[in-house]
Fold:
Amino acid sequence: MGEPRGPRAPGDEADVPLLASLLEHTAARQGHTALPAGYVQVLYRELAASGHAELFVGEVDGTPVAADLVTRCGGMVRGRLTGFDRSGEAGRLSVPAAIRWEIIRWGHAKGLHWLDFGGLRPATLDALDAGGGPPPGGWLPVDQPKLTFGGTAFRYPQAMELLSPRPVRAGYDLVARSPAGRQALDRARNLLRDVRGLRSRPPREVAT
Structure:
């Protein structure tokens, strides 16, 4: 059996296409739509330039199979995007956990104090709030690796969306009530995020 190699700590912009590809693997496995590659590229470029984003890559026998994009603010590192191709031998190894351990070591060396693993599913958080025991079906696979590190669950306030005028807000709420409507809204968000078609334009000359 192969062994995971130490994650590259950190990666760089050349690894962003790899991250986007691995996000597609994870999205297909979990049944959701991956973020557009152009959005991921701009997210990394804009935040990494000011030292607020880092990218870690995990390999098995020299082949990249997992990537983790984190952001940093104040004394906290926060998990943002995680991709993992668990096909083949990688599925039997804890490559994402190895990456997170490297992130913890890296953050400690940088003088950071907290790691936000990037959120838990509501069912997992509800079970932890109720006393710490797993729900009847056990912990969700997507959350189980995060729980192995210990730590304390924290519930953030619900995100709010401000829309105006009121008729637009009413229409949005009506669409969001149905599964088909929520899927349509998700597709619209992804279209807005997809910046691959945007090209920088030189400023227009103004006659004086």
Q: What stands out?
A: Residues 4-118 form a domain with the Aminopeptidase fold (CATH 3.40.630.30). Residues 16-30 form the longest helix (15 residues). Residues 196-208 have pLDDT under 50 and may be disordered. Strands lie at 4-8, 53-60, 63-73, 76-84, 114-116.
